[in-house]
């Protein structure tokens, strides 16, 4: 997110934003959420979605391991809140559309509020029936609503949605898309006028809506959206897009569209994990399987005072990080643009590394620390730095190199190729540990692996400064100098750089 101050000027809104891990990049390091899967039905069909598919290793919206009744959802929330002190947000995001299951959704929120009074309520919807539920959303204190808006042009929308079903009638083609878009924008405007903080999610679909998303950003901001999340397409097994051979966008395109939407005036969310509809925990650290019904039954009574004190301490950590980030933004150097790649990508032979920021991939389990082994990482946090300023760029999902018993791939060579395709434009990769085979593969690809620990931003600055010292002058973009320069470095023990 570019600036929390851009979102709201009211003290209450700022208070909730400081604790919402999706709306606040700094909060996601400390505060946790729970998604309650009480809404199985959906009233639209997106070409990228298939809610019937579930895999223990799959993390995407629309996937759950079990559905809950409102009673079960409230009981689970209480048990989780009693143990997970940093739980600050209770959301309903599926696996279908919460407002296509309105009674179960609102009954769940009501029951949760009776026993867990200190949490923020959040709702995600496609927006088709949103205008019918504005009053209930406000009355229940649902302060944050996310609407998935993939297009504001029915022609584009008709290539994304198969059908829309409303009040006993099925719509298709441009008619369906027009109805959906009109309802989405009307609902967004109504919620914003009532003081509800609205985030818009847009799925980036190459060659379908990529060129259209800056217009989406402009329109939704005009209608009251405070945050815009550009999400890379995840193609569900069995979906129409899979059958058509559609491919997910590359990281460069995702970043390019994020920057273009930011130029259109949107405040961009960059730390989205595209969570499951039953996720529990910090973003990127789903602990759903830790909270079994046996665990919930054995949970101690909730200590509201202890929760309040613990979250107050987290508030202070978030505040410090936000102030530090705000201070850095005043000294922020101009970005190199959406296509910024590795430090060795100067356009001229005499280009110096000191004149161009680099990308750094970081393996982290949360808490703002470099604390994840490379082989266990299912995502990499991407940062950009010139050695003086650190900017968070986004998240890149990968298949973990070490699968353990739950092995969806099994071919480490192919898995490593996939990982390299996601981090090849990075100069450094920071992790808490890495094996010899992936270390060599990264070095061969021109990505320098560093074993270290501690604060992410401090580590990034330290090793980018090291890189500037070691390689002050680079050669032409597109040459094989990246491999050669870092290959010269491979004879030094990796621990030399902080392990």
Automatic annotation (TrEMBL):
Tree of life domain: Bacteria
Radical SAM core domain mapped to chain residues: 28-278
PROSITE patterns found in the cross-reference section: MOAA_NIFB_PQQE, RADICAL_SAM
InterPro entries hit by this protein: Aldolase_TIM, Di-Nase_FeMo-co_biosynth, DiNase_FeMo-co_biosyn_sf, MoaA_NifB_PqqE_Fe-S-bd_CS, Nase_CF_NifB, NifB_C, rSAM, rSAM_sf
Pathway terms, separated by semicolons: Cofactor biosynthesis; Fe-Mo cofactor biosynthesis
Species annotation: Paenibacillus peoriae
UniProt KW 4Fe-4S keyword: yes
Record's keyword terms, sorted: 4Fe-4S, Iron, Iron-sulfur, Lyase, Metal-binding, Nitrogen fixation, S-adenosyl-L-methionine
Functional description taken from the UniProt entry: Involved in the biosynthesis of the iron-molybdenum cofactor (FeMo-co or M-cluster) found in the dinitrogenase enzyme of the nitrogenase complex in nitrogen-fixing microorganisms. NifB catalyzes the crucial step of radical SAM-dependent carbide insertion that occurs concomitant with the insertion of a 9th sulfur and the rearrangement/coupling of two [4Fe-4S] clusters into a [8Fe-9S-C] cluster, the precursor to the M-cluster.
Family of the protein in this entry: Belongs to the radical SAM superfamily. NifB family.
Keyword Membrane: no
Identification of the protein by name: FeMo cofactor biosynthesis protein NifB
Pfam families: Nitro_FeMo-Co (PF02579), Radical_SAM (PF04055)
Annotated spans, Disordered: 477-499
SUPFAM superfamilies: Nitrogenase accessory factor-like (SSF53146), Radical SAM enzymes (SSF102114)
PANTHER family referenced in this protein's UniProt entry, alphabetically: FEMO COFACTOR BIOSYNTHESIS PROTEIN NIFB, FEMO COFACTOR BIOSYNTHESIS PROTEIN NIFB-RELATED
Gene3D superfamilies for this protein: Aldolase class I, Dinitrogenase iron-molybdenum cofactor biosynthesis domain
Names of the cofactor(s): [4Fe-4S] cluster
Biased composition (Basic and acidic residues): 488-499
């Amino acid at each position: 997110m570019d600036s929390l101050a851009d979102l709201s000027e009211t003290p209450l809104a700022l208070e909730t934003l400081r604790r919402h891990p999706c709306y606040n990049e700094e909060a996601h390091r400390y505060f946790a959420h729970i998604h309650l899967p009480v809404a199985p039905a959906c009233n639209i069909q997106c070409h990228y979605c298939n809610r019937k598919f579930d895999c223990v290793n799959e993390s995407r919206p629309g996937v759950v391991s079990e559905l809950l009744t409102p009673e079960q959802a409230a009981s689970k929330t209480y048990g989780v809140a009693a143990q997970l002190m940093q739980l600050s947000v209770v959301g309903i995001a599926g696996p279908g559309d919460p407002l296509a299951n309105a009674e179960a959704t609102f009954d769940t929120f009501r029951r949760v509020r009776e026993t867990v009074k200190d949490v923020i309520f959040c709702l995600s919807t496609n927006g088709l029936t949103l205008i019918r539920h504005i009053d209930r959303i406000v009355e229940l204190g649902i302060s944050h609503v996310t609407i998935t808006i993939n297009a504001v042009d029915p022609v584009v929308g008709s290539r994304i949605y198969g059908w829309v079903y409303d009040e006993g009638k099925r719509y298709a083609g441009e008619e369906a898309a027009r109805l959906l878009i009109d309802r989405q924008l009307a609902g967004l405007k109504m919620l914003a006028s009532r003081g509800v903080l609205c985030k818009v999610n847009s799925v980036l679909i190459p060659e379908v809506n990529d060129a259209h998303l800056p217009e989406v950003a402009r329109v939704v901001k005009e209608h009251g959206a405070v945050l815009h999340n550009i999400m890379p397409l995840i193609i569900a097994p069995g979906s129409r897009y899979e059958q058509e051979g559609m491919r997910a966008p590359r990281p460069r395109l995702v970043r390019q569209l994020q920057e273009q939407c930011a130029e259109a005036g949107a405040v961009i969310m960059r730390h989205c994990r595209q969570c499951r509809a039953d996720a529990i925990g910090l973003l990127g650290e789903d602990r759903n399987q830790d909270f079994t019904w046996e665990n919930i039954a054995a949970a101690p009574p909730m200590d509201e005072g202890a929760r309040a004190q613990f979250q107050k301490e987290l508030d202070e950590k978030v505040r410090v990080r936000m102030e530090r980030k705000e201070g850095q933004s005043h000294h922020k150097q101009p970005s190199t643009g959406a296509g910024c790649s590795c430090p060795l990508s100067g356009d001229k032979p005499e280009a110096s590394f000191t004149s161009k920021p680099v990308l750094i991939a970081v393996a982290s389990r949360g808490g703002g620390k470099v604390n994840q082994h490379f082989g266990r990482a299912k995502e990499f946090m991407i940062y950009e730095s010139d050695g003086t300023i650190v900017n968070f760029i986004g998240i890149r999902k990968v298949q973990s190199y070490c699968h353990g018993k739950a092995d969806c791939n099994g071919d480490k060579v192919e898995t490593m190729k996939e990982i390299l395709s996601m981090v090849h434009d990075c100069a450094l990769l920071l992790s808490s540990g890495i094996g010899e085979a992936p270390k060599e593969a990264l070095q061969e690809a021109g990505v320098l692996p560093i074993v270290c620990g501690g604060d992410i931003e401090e580590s990034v600055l330290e090793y980018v400064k090291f890189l500037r010292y070691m390689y002050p002058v680079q050669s032409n973009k597109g040459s094989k100098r990246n491999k050669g320069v870092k290959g010269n470095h491979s004879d030094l023990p990796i621990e030399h750089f902080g392990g």
